[in-house]
Amino acid sequence: MDLIIYNANIYTVDEDFTRTESAAIKEGKFIATGSNRKILGKYRAASMIDMEGRFVYPGLIDPHCHFYGYGTSLMNADLVGARSFEEIKEIILRHHDEFPSEWILGRGWDQNLWPVQEFPDKSRLDRIFPDKPVLLTRIDGHAAIANSEALRRAGIEMETAVEGGEFIKENGELTGVLIDNAINMVRQHVPAPEYSDKVAALMNVQKKCFAVGLTSVGDAGLDRDIIMLMDSLHKSGDLKMRIYAMINPTEENFETFMHKGRYKTDHLNIRSVKLFADGALGSRGARMIEEYSDDPGNFGILIETPEYLSTISRKAWEYGYQVNTHCIGDSAVRLILDIYGNILGGQNDRRWRIEHAQVVHPEDFHLFGKYSVIPSVQTTHATSDMKWAVHRLGPERIKGAYAYKDLLDQAGWLPNGSDFPVEHINPLYGFYAAIARKNLDGYPEDGFQMENSLNREQALRGMTIWAAKAAFEEDEKGSIEPGKLADFIVIDEDLMTIDKERIPHLKIRSTFSGGKEVYPLK
């Protein structure tokens, strides 16, 4: 044996949600679990750790995030939580003084936090940066503000059109606000990061993941060069984070990956494609069946045509790939359920996913069960959006939004992630949001639409074994059982019984990947 942990309170998260005391690990996998007497009486190991009654859980898994994207964003101005556009100006000025660059980039602004909840315009950016291009992305990644110099470099004028996006205009002028595909028209002119920057991005975000107990992630939308870099860093031993890589629907990705079948190592799994149906609710880009309650005449947008989405989905079906489609609005959800249903035909084990499934029409919930479609959700979206989502949707439509218990009842299991950096990277925030339906300020006191809360067992399964199952990896990770990878975390207090209001404040004491401690590093 390489390692034995004992005197622990271990939640195995197996089928029966068994608790035990000790585990033996060899060559990166659990060999046996059981009582102290059973394990210590049978095994000896080079390393023996007395857990002194601490609580052990499977390594946490975020089934939908932007691992590499978060790493690159750490190098840009952090706008999360800014309470006004004036504060954003101060942040980017400070950042540019400390890290001067050709383009000024930032991410994280949210106009719903400002005194006047309206999109900004480029005029204030033009005054402070008349000659430098600026591109600041909204927290959800589906809107951005660009200054005039950035628009000029991208060749964007009043007459410029874009499919699956929008250039916001007021009084006959461009405001600089870009929605969905319009962002890419500017972003493609931003210089590509150097190789060393890409490596640094991956290594930086890995540290942050291990610190919050994440041992596996699903990276939702990657290009060939980043996937190949991840694979090389895995093979060199530098990158230890296990990654379920969803490929972007590019011909280069299809030729390199999909057409050659699935690719699988202990650290990298490639067997899925990421699609976008619509935009985000916060920027009113989510595609709705009925118009926005706070913006009459606006139904949101489809980022891709139904024909394109159907074509790529059928291509994935032919090659045995999973399809994971971003759907926020009820119209987008209905469209993708229809496309999936036409291809899948009925019950199946393809595990095609609808990512987010934020707003579902009451008549459509049953289709998740009918076609075995998996809703891949992020419980913190509910608690981040709840204060303004009711204004977007109205008092009736909001009842079908963030309906995680209703979705769980359809599929029987529910993977829960964070979509970081859209939400905070800490998975315990998602656990708290799932069971308490409150934000980190404890609002609302009685919880938001508590009929759709999850219990603690469901919440833990959602970020362990069900998250693994969403990536076809439930036989190798997601629970503490013999034969599975020895990924686990240690916490001083019991996540399953502690006062729920204390959960967001819990700290991870140790994170182990393959039986080796990766946080804190000794």
Name its key features.
single chain; 522 residues; alpha/beta; Urease, subunit C, domain 1; TIM Barrel; eight-stranded mixed sheet; six-stranded mixed sheet; 32% helix
Compact description:
With 522 residues, the protein is α/β, with parallel strands linked by helices. The chain contains 17 helices and 24 strands.
Overview of the molecule:
Strand 15, helix 8 (224-236) and strand 16 (242-247) form a beta-alpha-beta unit. Helix 2 (67-73) crosses helix 7, helix 10 runs parallel beside helix 11 and helix 13 (379-397) packs parallel to helix 15 (427-436). Among the domains are: 3-53, Urease, subunit C, domain 1 (Roll); 195-474, TIM Barrel (Alpha-Beta Barrel). Strands 8, 15, 16, 17, 18, 19, 20 and 21 form an 8-stranded mixed beta sheet that branches. The chain has a 6-stranded mixed beta sheet with strand order 3-2-7-22-23-24, with helices on one face. With 522 residues, the chain is of the alpha/beta class. The longest helix has 19 residues, at 379-397. It is globular and about 80 Å long. It contains 17 helices and 24 strands.
Low-confidence stretches: none
* Mean pLDDT figure: 96
- Fraction of residues in helix: 25-40%
Number of helical elements: 17
CATH topology of the domain at 195-474: TIM Barrel
Distance between the termini: 21 Å
Q: How much strand?
A: 15-25%
Number of strands: 24
Sheet bearing the most strands, described?
Answer: 8 strands, mixed
CATH uppermost class of the domain at 195-474: Alpha Beta
- CATH superfamily of the domain at 195-474, by name, is Metal-dependent hydrolases
CA gyration radius, whole angstroms: 23 Å
**Class inferred from helices and paired strands:** alpha/beta
Shape: globular
**What's the CATH architecture name of the domain at 195-474?**
Alpha-Beta Barrel
